[in-house]
Amino acid sequence: MAIENYQGKKFCGDNRLIVDDNLTVEEALQIAINSETFTITMRTPGHDEDLVRGLLYSEDIYKADEKLTIHFSENEEKGIIEANLSIDKELLSDGYSNSRNLLSVSSCGICGKKELENIDNSQKLKNGIKLNVKDLFKMFNAMEKGQPTFDQSGGSHAAAAFSNDIELLSIREDIGRHNAVDKVIGHLINEQQLNKAKCLIVSGRISYEIVSKAFAAKIPILAAVSAPSTLAVDFAKELGITLLGFCREHKATCYAHPERLID
Question: What is the pLDDT of residues 93-137, one digit of tens each?
């Protein structure tokens, strides 16, 4: 668990209390490819190798389904952790030229990008799998049980991937919603299980970028505890992704491609 204890003054009616609260750690990670800084992302430390691998894959930078050797080091002068990779330039995809050299913060995956990437929807997902809505709630129950950082701090997001037979393949936490998704995708790649993932669930809301990451990973069903954005729904419809929001209290609302659902 990446948490630290901070003291605060709590106002509760007419009472004033000094409290000690566990807060989720947020620190910078600088990613360099071939000795050139590619991006700086704010994240919760832990599973950094999964984060880097998933980000490179979901951002169309390096699409091969293989594990990469990543060298981590601490830059004491900058007070930052650096992740260094060596990748043959011929193997870098189009996303690399859209370099995210500006700061990318944990709350918004678009921050730091020079422009919104054009998603190629020519490979629209047409997977004919079916999901029983009751099984969807089982997935959310499983994810809820696997969030120790959130249990301690109340300040982290989670993402989890499941197979078609409701097997939990990966679960990761991070202060950033899109970081948690990248960690899951990276973990699946590193464990050579990406092709088994059929459903991705997240603890917060769904933005367009979460949809684009699910599409990059070819995961046809995406569901969230909270709401999707309008752009997320539009993208899901275009890209062939079954998108559900407000998945809580045994309720769920499907906004795109309900044909995969069994009720």
Answer: 877 766 554 345 555 544 444 344 455 556 788 877 899 999 999
pTM of the model: 0.86
Give residue for tokens 């991006």: 39
Query: How many whole angstroms separate alpha carbon 119 and alpha carbon 230?
Result: 16
Q: Which of 12, 108, 247, 254 is catalytic?
A: 108
Structurally, the chain folds into a number of domains equal to 2
Q: pLDDT tens digits for 46-96?
A: 999 999 999 999 988 998 888 899 999 998 888 889 999 999 988 898 777
Is 12 annotated as catalytic?
A: no
Q: Compute the Cα dihedral for 125, 94, 208, 44 and give only its sign.
A: positive
Q: 135 has which bridge partners?
A: none
What is the Cα–Cα distance from 47 to 49, expressed in whole angstroms? Answer: 5
φ, ψ for residue 232, nearest 5 deg: -60, -45
100 in the same domain as 218 = no
Residue finishing a domain among 71, 98, 117: 117
Looking up tokens 């430390």 gives 45
3-state secondary structure of 40: strand
* Per-residue CA distances from 73 to 85, 106, 136, 175, 202 (Å): 12, 21, 40, 22, 30
Q: Evaluate whether residue 78 is within a structural domain.
A: yes
